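Morning. Coffee machine broken again, so started the prediction first thing and wrote up yesterday's gels while waiting. Chain of 239 residues, entered below exactly as on the submission form.
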Amino acid sequence: MMILFLFVYRRKYYTISRELIENKPVCHIESIINSVHHVIIEDEKVINNCSKCFPNATELTFQMDLVTIANFFASYDFHRMIPVAQLTKLTIKNIWNADRILNMLLHTPNIHTLVLTMITLYGKDILSIQKRENFRLVSKQNKIKNVTISFYSLSTIKILMKLCSELQHLTLGEYQQPFEGIIPFLLSKADRTTCHLSSLCILKVDAMGIMKLKTLVKLNKCIEDYLLKIVNDKFYLWW
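Came back before lunch.
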């Protein structure tokens, strides 16, 4: 028997963790929590035992490497718990392969902010990934304008640029050597009417890295009107 009631919970976020198993009630009571806008999932094993529903959730965070979540994400039970089509921000704090991320984005067409740790390609080249049906569908429907990724390569950046045609702001994690190829690639898109990217932020850049980045920008011939700013160890570029 299913009992449904409004749960008195006033916080804006809710964490789904192992405590749900440890404190599992004898009867299955489904609670509607209207105040929550941000749902954080720490353990996929407890999702089946979660009797909470979050009808107003707009942000979803995965804290751990969730092996089967991509499949469960498409299920009716998950959509009843979290109406994924209305999500506007998705954060994945672990390493996922491209297919799992694409399959998840298929069900979240209104995401405008995507935060990733790392995308693994498993030896697949960019063209083979772009030919996949899920890639074509996501690239046509997604509204992603802001992307943050902690670990990356030039191949990863190329895939994100191709996938997110409305991308405006890109934030990259700690300064890495691939920037010798990444900066010219990103700025080469600046003079194309089909590219909306207009700002770049790079985190944790040391003094030597700042000098190299400034040189790369100055040597680039694709942009003439730009603003460059350094705030602590963050490198900002607008054009």
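The longest strand covers residues 89-97. Going to sketch it on the whiteboard this afternoon.
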